[in-house]
């Protein structure tokens, strides 16, 4: 196993919300006993091979707030709209297509798509461009597992994610607020990073429509708009994907979307954030607090230009 110094503490149990908070101290103590004093400053998962995944030590946001304060423009532009309008989205059966520059393309029923990966819990800070944040106990599978199974071919450099296109289920796709379907993308090395997951649940409960059911992208060092929801296609390519928000306003929403408090949004500062449910603002952390894990991905890049 690989260990790295950091502020985060591991949590390897998928736990219902009712007992989650009571078990946090037990899990910390168990980690300390099993790994020694260094474990209090490390995070790791072992699955088929050594995998380092630091977890968040902050208190998770309540399930009620996570599921009723959302950005999902296909279901509405106000924070409460997705929960109100989400019943129109039918999440079963569900198919995910993996194609493009891969040796093993295919279309999979969701249950087959998730196998044989082990579902894990990842407690991540999540930060939105608008200045609000949450701490979410995600349930999901490593994105790298899916990509390795598909076997990227030489020359593949990017991974493109596409949301379901169906205005009967996602009524705001009848509007022109964005160009539909919603498309997001990562560089291949970003997508292979152990922090990146495909989430299927929160607090060990299946994702609700407003949170991107039944499967969505989570990259916790990036702003929330990178989190493509209700994914139906994953495509590998040698060209940088033209994403939904880059199409909408490239001067405000860049392809990389790494959390960088030193780069202001044109209409507001990114230096502080408000954790949903709190009444104080807190400083925004570089890479959302995951700099030790991901900064090396951007070595030599100007993060003020590649925003």
Question: How are the SSEs placed, and which strands pair?
Answer:
Elements: H1 17-35, E1 45-47, E2 49-51, H2 63-66, H3 81-85, E3 95-100, E4 106-109, H4 110-114, E5 120-127, E6 132-142, H5 143-150, E7 158-163, E8 183-187, H6 188-191, E9 197-202, E10 205-206, E11 216-218, E12 231-237, H7 244-249, E13 272-275, E14 281-283, H8 291-294
Parallel strand pairs: 3-12, 6-13
Antiparallel strand pairs: 1-2, 3-4, 5-6, 6-9, 7-8, 7-12, 9-10, 9-11, 13-14
Report what the structure shows.
This protein has a single domain, classed as Oxidoreductase, molybdopterin-binding domain (Sulfite Oxidase, Chain A, domain 2, Alpha-Beta Complex). The protein contains eight helices and 14 strands. The strands form three sheets. Strands 5, 6, 9, 10, 11, 13 and 14 form a seven-stranded mixed beta sheet that branches. Strand 9 and strand 10 form a beta hairpin. The longest helix has 19 residues.
Q: What percentage of residues falls in helices of 4 or more residues?
A: 10-25%
Mean pLDDT: 86
CATH domain class = Alpha Beta
Total number of helices: 8
Overall number of structural domains: 1
The CATH superfamily is known as Oxidoreductase, molybdopterin-binding domain
- How large is the radius of gyration? 18 Å
Number of strands: 14
Order of helices and strands: HEEHHEEHEEHEEHEEEEHEEH
Distance between the termini: 33 Å
List low-pLDDT spans: 1-15, 22-51
Structural class of the secondary structure composition? Answer: alpha+beta
CATH topology: Sulfite Oxidase, Chain A, domain 2
């Amino acid at each position: 196993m690989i260990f790295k110094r950091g502020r985060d503490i591991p949590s390897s149990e998928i736990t219902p919300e009712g007992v989650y908070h009571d078990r946090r101290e037990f899990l910390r103590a168990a980690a300390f006993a099993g790994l020694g004093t260094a474990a209090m400053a490390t995070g790791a998962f072992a699955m088929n091979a050594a995998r380092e995944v630091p977890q968040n030590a902050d208190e998770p946001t309540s399930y009620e707030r996570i599921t009723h304060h959302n950005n999902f423009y296909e279901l509405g532009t106000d924070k409460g709209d997705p929960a109100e309008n989400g019943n129109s989205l039918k999440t079963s059966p569900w198919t995910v297509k993996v194609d493009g520059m891969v040796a093993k393309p295919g279309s999979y029923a969701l249950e087959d798509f998730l196998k044989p990966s082990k579902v894990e819990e990842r407690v991540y800070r999540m930060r939105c461009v608008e200045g609000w944040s949450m701490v979410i106990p995600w349930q999901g599978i490593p994105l790298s597992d899916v990509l390795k199974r598909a076997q990227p071919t030489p020359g593949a450099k990017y991974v493109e994610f596409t949301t379901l296109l169906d205005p009967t289920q996602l009524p705001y796709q009848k509007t022109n607020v964005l160009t539909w379907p919603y498309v997001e993308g990562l560089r291949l090395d970003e997508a292979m990073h152990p922090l990146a997951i495909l989430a299927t649940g929160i607090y060990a409960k299946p994702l609700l429509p407003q949170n991107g059911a039944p499967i969505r992208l989570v990259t916790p060092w990036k702003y929330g708009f990178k989190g493509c929801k209700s994914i139906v296609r994953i495509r590998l390519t040698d060209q940088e994907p033209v994403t939904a928000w880059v199409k909408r306003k490239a001067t405000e929403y860049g392809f990389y979307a790494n959390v960088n408090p030193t780069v202001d949004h044109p209409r507001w500062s990114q230096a502080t954030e408000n954790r949903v449910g709190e009444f104080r603002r807190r400083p925004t952390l570089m890479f959302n607090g995951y700099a030790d894990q991901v900064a090396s991905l951007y070595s030599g890049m100007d993060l003020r230009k590649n925003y």
